[in-house]
Please model this.
Amino acid sequence: MKSSPIKLKQKLSKSAAAKKKARDIEYASKQYRIDRRSQNQSEGQRPDSDLHHTKSGVLKRVSIKNNRGNYGRGTKNE
Model:
């Protein structure tokens, strides 16, 4: 992690970082995550919008402001 140019907010010990990495890889390897990534890549990203998966599984294009701002409710209480 020392070579990463991204400044991480979490300051984890080596053992905690290793456990988090293992959890993240396990989550990303689940079939529904693989399917969603595949669907996003086939749909294509545009600079003016984000792709959002609804609870019903439908993919819809929404504004970046709405998708990343939790539709006006903010992200602190997610």
Remarks:
- The helical segments are 14-28, 31-43, 64-68.
- The two ends are 27 Å apart (CA to CA).
- Residues 51 and 61 are 5 Å apart (CA to CA).
